[in-house]
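Supplementary Methods S3. Input chains for the assembly prediction are listed below.
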Amino acid sequence: ETGVTQTPRHLVMGMTNKKSLKCEQHLGHNAMYWYKQSAKKPLELMFVYSLEERVENNSVPSRFSPECPNSSHLFLHLHTLQPEDSALYLCASSQVGRTGAHEQYFGPGTRLTVT
Amino acid sequence: AQKITQTQPGMFVQEKEAVTLDCTYDTSDQSYGLFWYKQPSSGEMIFLIYQGSYDEQNATEGRYSLNFQKARKSANLVISASQLGDSAMYFCAMREVSRSGTYKYIFGTGTRLKVLA
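Predicted structure tokens for the full assembly:
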């Protein structure tokens, strides 16, 4: 596997279900991100982990719970979601340091539908 | 106020011609970075090109170049010799340092480019 992978690619869940999204990066990066992409809206940053520590939480509802067990893996645990949470969820990674562009590399996303 | 503005929701370009996608940004930081990403219908965001706020020369990567005008706060993407595979959504993004001291990336709403045969 290369780059950033995400599973599952598609997920349909009811409002009472509990599910998790998984992201894995094979780039040796030290920062990982969760984004939400809804139609006709800018990409919304949800969470940032740098060196496995959560450093950003952009007022995301508590029904979304991130977990970063190590620098290569990132999870997004979902429970009691709402229909407006239906979106494409993108994971990204980057190398944070003193120099360089620090560009982000994205996974293919999980298309989530809440029914 | 929006920090990244992409005023062109959709663009058409003839194959083999050049096209410019507009991006303006707003920041009070002295040090920042500007990026362009491509998102095909498959969904994955692909990094194209980067321009640092202190870089004096415009960035180029193959057929992509970034027209950086710092005083105007614009960072337009130029794609030369368009190909059918260039049809996609294009996002402009800015990297700032957040309050926590880490990097924060802000994206525009995107421009959908369609290359015509």
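Chain A has a mean pLDDT of 90. The two ends of chain A are 32 Å apart (CA to CA).
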